[in-house]
Amino acid sequence: MQRVPEPELMDQPEQAHAYATADFETAHQGFIDHFKQAFPEAYISGEVLDLGCGPCDISRRFALAFPDTILHAVDGAPAMLAEASRLNSKHGLAERIVLIESLLSDLQLPQAHYHTLISNSLLHHLHKPHQLWQNLRQHAQPEAKVFIVDLMRPADTNQAHALVEQYAVNEPEVLREDFYHSLCAAFTPDEVQQQLDEQGLSKLHVQVISDRHMIIFGSL
Fold this sequence. Notes:
Elements: H1 13-21, H2 25-38, E1 46-51, H3 57-65, E2 69-75, H4 78-90, E3 97-101, E4 114-120, H5 130-139, E5 140-151, H6 157-167, H7 173-185, H8 189-198, E6 205-208, E7 213-219
Parallel strand pairs: 1-2, 1-4, 2-3, 4-5
Antiparallel strand pairs: 5-7, 6-7
Helix pairs in contact: 1-4, 2-3, 6-7
């Protein structure tokens, strides 16, 4: 199946609210668990850059898993950041998660470099995926830890529909539609590896972790 790009920003209030209230427990806790497996000996502290934070469920889980961190959480969609602000305050994490409204094409950050950089489900939204890799290189300290989780494109539309029925059967229609379009917009592991090679990031590893997810991780 050829890739079918989708809109880069998810900025409708009902869309943002649906994501903020959806049950992503398995996938998002899996993000934390796989991060710990990727860097088992690492002590994670200080400022962490989270690109494409959405309503910040991953940011909050990361902050709780690594209590000596401050998250700089970036998203280009004001509606997503509004949900993030509400939920961060609700969970008592507003002071540990700094919200930053910015696109990758004009990324404005409080500091130049980070020792840990994470991202969840951003890559498949990008029309120019090299912007993610270039920002990682630009804002990573030497030996910085990079950890990215994203969808991977299925073989055909039938498989995409089957994945929606398997994992989002009880979700609101807006989430079901977005999930399908995101699967169609996702890259394959081979395509991601090619992107890494082209951007001089061959030290990062690409690993399939489920029937719909892959991780990209390593130290720069």
